[in-house]
Amino acid sequence: MADDGxxxxxxxxxxxxxxxxxxxxxxxxxxxxxxLYELEKELSPLDAIRIRREYIExxxxxxxxxxxxxxxxxxxxxxxxxxxxxxxVQVPVGIAGPLLVNGEYAHGSYYLPLATTxxxxxxxxxxxxxxxxxxGGVEVRILHxxxxxxxxxxxxxxxxxxxxxxxxxxxxxxxxxxxxxxxxHGKLIEIVPFVAGTSVFFRMNFDTKDAMGMNMVTxxxxxxxxxxxxxxxxxxxxxxxxxxxxxxxxxxxGILGRGRSAVxxxxxxxxxxxxxxxxxxxxxxxxxxxxxxxxxxxxxxxxFNAHAANVVAAMFIACGQDAAHAIDGSTCLTTVxxxxxxxxxxxxxxxxxxxxxxxxxxxxxxxxxxxxxGVAGGGNPPGTNxxxxxxxxxxxxxxxxxxxxxxxxxxxxxxxxxxxGRG
Length: 423
Fold this sequence. Notes:
This protein has 15 helices and 10 strands. It folds into 3 domains: 1-90, no CATH class; 94-145 and 253-419, 3-hydroxy-3-methylglutaryl-coenzyme A Reductase, Chain A, domain 2 (Alpha-Beta Complex); 151-238, Hydroxymethylglutaryl-CoA reductase, class I/II, NAD/NADP-binding domain (Alpha-Beta Plaits, 2-Layer Sandwich), CATH 3.30.70. It is globular. It has helices spanning 19-31, 45-60, 74-80, 121-134, 158-170, 172-180, 214-232, 251-256, 270-277, 281-299, 308-318, 326-329, 364-373, 384-409, 413-419, and strands at 93-103, 107-115, 138-149, 152-154, 187-196, 199-207, 235-238, 258-269, 333-339, 342-352. Helix 10 packs across helix 14. The model is unreliable at 1-15 (pLDDT under 50). It is α+β, with helices and mostly antiparallel strands.
């Protein structure tokens, strides 16, 4: 349904019809009597969004009518996902597949929802899905599962720093109990110390079940940090000390893993490579070696892949994941091993912070994409849905890597971009 503010939403909502009241609110906003973020205190969420958007239109002289068209549950979103909301941005969602997956948690054929504005991406992933499915499916496994938070403490000296580390090692059981008292789902797996002069970091690793878990581990880490400070005299400087590492390129995530760590691979025959990718096994190997491995090393890259972050970001946006964590997907390592019958291509993604409950997973459009994959909500047993999603994403990344490697090996990249509107 549409309202007079340009909304189109099945959820509806009370509309402010009193023009005098609306005018009074606009006046109070301009005079600073009420702040934009305070509108929900006096208005329904839908009205607050509309009036906030109208105010911004007036102040900037910019029409924002398309931002006001949406179908999601605004009451929920303004409480859990977005402050000062004025509307939504729509991102096209394409489908790639079916993709045959042979994982520990994901079994069967899946259609991958990809939210993107990049022409050629969905078509490329779709071609990779076709090749993988014809080859008998992708093998995929979860290697590591744990979300991290790493507070940093200031010690008085390097001797004190070592004492702090020793104290934590001696009180791990007590600290684990304190952490787990803050959550009904999370479990503290380990606390790994790192010392740099008088700075002491504790990288805490948690099992967060089907949640991505950043809120969960932050709250639990705060409780643990309080006890460490009390027990050692070390001063807590910051609850996140960047050893986590969250939403930034970091070698530690590639080495130790963060979120769900997944590896996926597929064997391709000479005939299949020739038929689908119009190239051969030696060319695939050469492109991967000189581009993904040598080129990435020469550039000082932390990821050794063709475009893994493309697929990670597209699936993250479609499935309600934190899009900033797509940077972790760029640490992917793509390998091509020659075999007597063709090649074995694999991707290793050490850091996929994904979840199927919490965050943006409950927004209606994103939840539909999770339902499409059969992973919405909590798994049975807990944790299985998040692992299943990670396996599916890793499989999609492999499809994307295969297709781009094939296009490069066959010298088809520029042509495909021109044909799909990216020239």
